[in-house]
Every structure is written in C-alpha cells, then in structure tokens.
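INTERNAL AUDIT FORM
Audit reference: QA-55
Scope: verify that the stored structure record matches its stored sequence.
Auditor: D.O.
Record contents follow.
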Amino acid sequence: MSAKLLKENFPGMAALAIVCAHIATTETSGARNPRARHREQHMAVLKQALPGVGKGLTRPESVITLADGRVYACDKVCGVVRVLPTQGALVPLRFPTEPFIPNGIALLEDGSFLIANMGPHGGVWRMTGPGRIEPFIANLNGYPLHPTNYVELDEQGRLWFTVSTLHVPRETAFRPGIADGYIVRYENGRSEVVAESIGFCNEGRVSPDGAWYYINETIGRRITRFPILEGGRFGPRETVIQFGGDGIFPDGMGFDADGGVWVASVVSNRLVRVSGGKAEVVLEDCDEAVVQSVEQAFAAGRMGRAEIDSGRQWTLGNISSLAFGGADLRTLYLGSLFRESLTVLPSRWAGARPVHWNFGKTVLDT
C-alpha cells in the first residue's frame, strides 16, 4: 500500500510525520563489543493510536504479506485470518490440544499455513482450511516438542523453527542467565537441532542472501546470528547487538532491502532498526516509569507474565512482530499480543522481499 493510499484510507496519517522521524539513535560497537549497552534518554507514549487494519483479531502475533496486497495474521481463535482483503465468515479452529496458542506462521507454496504452537504441547501444525488443522512436526527424536515459537520457509524449501525454552511453564524462563531454547532445521522429513543454549528462542529468520540465520533472544536480550554452512549446518555464533536496561526485549524480526535488521520489542512497544553498529528506535509507545519497573523485576530475577505483558496498556498493544508489505514494500504491518488489529504505518526503508511474496491462492482464499 503506497503512502498516498494510506493517507486516503486513514485520514489521520498526516500525524505520522512525528512517528516516522527518528525518535532516538544510539550507537553500539555491535559484534566488536557485544556486551555494549545503550539507554535512551527519553521514552514516549503515543499521543493517539496509529491506524489499524482488521477487526476483532485475537493475539495477532505474526503477520504475512503478499505482493498483491493480501495480508494474513495468526489468531488465537481461528489459527490464521486473512486481514486484507477482509475474510468472509471466520471459522474457529478445532483445537487439537489445550491450550493451543498460534504464534509464528509460515505460508507454504501449496497455499496451506504452518502454525507454531506456543502452548505447552508445542509442535508445528498445518492449517489446511478454515477451522482445519493437522500435526506437521509433533516431536523431535521421539520426544514431544516444547513451546514452539516460530517457523519459517527458506528459498531452498527448508523449514526452520524455534523452541523457546524447556521450562514449564515457560514464564519461569523469564530470568537472566536462562538459555535453554534451540533452533531446528526441517528438511526431507527430518528434524535436526542446529543451535542450542538460546536465551528464550523467539523469532528467527534466514537473511535475504541466505548466508546467515538470525535469532532474537528475548531473555538473552540480543540478536544473534549463525553462518549457514554446507548441508544447513551452523557455524560459530556471533552477537549482532546486545540490548539491556532500555526496555528492549526482542521478539519479532524483519529485514529491509538496505541490510537493516528490524526488531519488535514487547514491554516497551519499541520498533528498532539495527544497522552498521547502530540501534535506532523508529517507533515507541511506552512510559519510562513502567519500563524501569520491569527492568528492576528482571534484574532481581522475578520477572513474570505480568511484566512481559506490561506493554498492553498502550495503544500498540505489546508489539511482537513486523512485516513489510505494499507493492513497494514500504508499508509496515505490526502484529501484537493484545491489539485487536494490525498497526499500519509507512516506512522510508523498503523491506526485503520474503520467500512467499509471489505465492498464489491460499486455503483461506475461497
């Protein structure tokens, strides 16, 4: 969707001039000094809600965009919902297990969707039509999967998925120093763990050039990457950037066409672009006193669900993901844990084209 169309469809878009300006820019030395910290001087609550698309969504944590303007989001009730153009009748998912928490989603070329189940039974599930779901990857080496956070398809047809933690319930892993998440490659019907000891393994993505796998460590509070070697093995890990003390708990991830890595942060509702040793806050919706209260709880080892969810009190609804869309890939769609629509805003950076960009009809396009 172009900036012109955004303005036509959302009369309040002129107010985004302030939002689209750089709110804050801080320098780190990136991988050269991965323990570097940065702290913003000020935090800001949005004065008015940004435009949204979709209505009545439940936990639209993950977003998929296509070249022809279609937009899909995961939904706790229906599994996956087509947001644009608006889907007709919404069919609740027949839950295969309780609780079932749709989290990251991926689109396959046959039009079906894969859903990572963040519930305690985990696994990757395949949505074959409205309300219909079947197991796709249910176990690893004969053992049931733990809470499964994200799943992605790459250019070679391989799947990569992340398991956040071995802790039950997963909230007990919201502590400094806990790092028991792992990354799995699925290829030719086989699953193989390619990386372990991840500090709450969240959204992970293969870089646009296919050379690296990037992962957000939410509790490790950093972006980590691994070189992808022959056969899909990983080389030594590298820290791209280390956050801390600034309300950034990296959740969702994306890439732009200029090589920037984007992060959607829960707690602080911050949208951050990382490039060239700099972390730039593009958007935020948070209160400094609340964020510092969460920071204190985290440092004291008593952070729980209430702290992670604190970003729900502001209009962005605890942002958790991002996707570039529109014909020019300059429209940002933000998923969240609590807003009932997807936040939409223009971007001056064009996004990198996703693998599924030109896929055809999906199982929700009847």
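Auditor finding: record pair retrieved intact. The radius of gyration is 19 Å.
Action required: none
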